[in-house]
Amino acid sequence: MTDSPALSEATLDALDRASGRLASASLAAMEEQFPWFQRMPADQRASVLLIAQGGVAGFAAWMRDRSEALRLTTDAFRTAPRELSRWISLRQTVELVRAALSVFEQEVPPLAADDAERAVLTEAVLRYGKEVAFTSAMSYASAAETRGAWDARLEALVVDGIVRGDAEEALLSRAAALGWDPGAEATVLVGNPPSDDQPTVVYEVRSRAARASRAALLSVQGSRLVVVLAGATETPDDAEVLRRMADAFGAGPVVAGPTVASLAEAHRSSAEALSGLRAVVGWPAAPRPVRSADLLPERALAGDPEAEWQLVDGIARPLEEAGGAVLETVQTYLESGGVLENCARLLFVHPNTVRYRLRKATELTGRNPIDPRDALVLRIALCVGRLARARGLW
Questions:
Q1: Fewest CB within 10 A of the end CB: N or C in the chain?
Q2: Which of 215-219, 227-231, 390-394 is the least confident region?
Q3: Mean pLDDT of the chain
Q4: Residue 261: CB atoms within 10 Å
Q5: How far is it, in rounded angstroms, from Cα 260 to Cα 187?
Q6: CA angle, corner 370, sides to 369 and 373, nearest 5?
Q7: Peptide bond into 289 cis (omega under 30)
Q8: How far apart are CA 6 and CA 34, in angstroms?
């Protein structure tokens, strides 16, 4: 703004005297125009009045010293949104500012002693309005940035707690504060981060989760990225979400733990996913992402007792309980190199009998001995079962 003619002392005095009336008139306009403002507690409306009074006083001080920047004018409003943002939105704040400026436009110019001063005051009010609106938006942006940083720290605490195995109420309440549905199913995915830049990592994960309409929590822990994804993953359509989320990770394997009923049980999914990530190197051809349950042989060989127990409980025990014929047929089939005719000849049975028993084994364990990968799982499971029984664990 170029230098404008100075205001007379009489006009400046009139502006000073009118500051209280202008603030009260602004508050009355807000109450009249906005029902939601009327419902605010009295102490909060009183805070708005003080802010308005400070703004008017700053405006009057600036009009006395035109060499002073608009800092005097906008200081009162600079801190206002940080307080008001606790109970009103940015849109509502803009509405309040607009109502106050409307009062200023009507009440301030008539305080001038002549037309020249009226033009000066009119121009000053317009500049004032622009500065206040800009300052309000910047303050809300700063508040949002602060909240975002706090949310990121809170999110990291939640994910770290899940990885450590915490299941206390504090973890659940923190997750709820981040918008997580406490009753939602949860699946933990682990892998390498796509970048060393934290905002890039957050964008990659958030954008893919948003496109899948899923909530997600994430944390970068050194050289690994941990993502907790909400919702089911069992159906083919749901499993596709895991494949899309895997694209948010960097190069290398991505392991998904089992889907658990709620966030309170997510530590189990995390433990299995991390166990799988340590063992996945043993299966170079593993899909991406790979389920931790599909890495049971590698996890067992790496010394994971949970994987050993799952192999015993899900494969070795059902085969033994099915009777000697099924177990013997599976063992013989695997030892004979997976050749059905050789297995039948060694057992002195018809090949169709072998086929029937293998189908029975598949129904019991979910693993088909004819499939090379499933054959490896069965072989390791039977070996682990024998070792567990020898140690008296089964």
A1: N
A2: 390-394
A3: 85
A4: 11
A5: 7
A6: 70
A7: yes
A8: 37
Tell me, what DSSP letter sits at residue 260?
Answer: B
pLDDT at position 274 over 90: yes
CA atoms in the 13 A half-sphere facing the CB of 6: 7
What are the percentages of helix, strand and coil residues in the chain, rounded to 5?
Answer: 70, 5, 25
Residue 10: what residue type? A
Is 340 in contact with 333 (CB distance < 8 Å)?
yes
* Three-state DSSP state, 255: strand
Could you tell me which residues are beta bridge partners of residue 290? 255
What is the CA 339 to chain-centroid distance, rounded? Answer: 50
Query: Measured between alpha carbons, how far is 59 from 312 in angstroms, rounded to an integer?
Result: 79
Q: How far apart are CA 249 and CA 120, in angstroms?
A: 59
Which residue, among 217, 208, 285, 278, has the nearest Cα to 246 in the 3D structure? 208
- Residue that is written with structure tokens 């895991």 in the block: 242
Distance CA 338, CA 31 (A): 83
Bridge partners for 191 per DSSP:
225
Whose tokens are 């004819």? That residue is 370
Domains of the chain (ranges, CATH numbers): 9-145 (1.10.490), 172-291 (3.30.70.2730), 305-390 (1.10.10.2840)
What are the backbone dihedrals phi and psi of residue 289, each rounded to the nearest 5 degrees, phi first? -80, 160
Locate 123 and state its tokens: 């121009």
Provide the token pair at 12: 């400046």
The angle formed by the CA atoms of residues 182, 188 and 193, to the nearest 5 degrees, is 125
Query: pTM of the prediction?
Result: 0.65
Whose CA is closest to 186, among 210, 164, 159? 159
The values of phi and psi at residue 224, to 5°, are -130, 150
Rounded-to-integer distance, Cα 88 and Cα 128, Å: 22
pLDDT category of residue 31 using cuts at 50, 70 and 90: confident
Question: What is the per-residue burial (b if ≥16 Cβ within 10 Å, else e) of 219-238?
Answer: bbeeebbbbbbbbebeeeeb
Tens-digit pLDDT profile for residues 301-339: 999 999 999 999 999 999 999 888 999 999 999 999 889
Phi, psi of 284 (to 5 degrees): -60, -30
- Residue 262: CB atoms within 10 Å: 14
Longest Cα separation, the chain: 119
The Cα 85–Cα 205 span in angstroms is 28
Q: Which two tokens stand for residue 336?
A: 């004979």
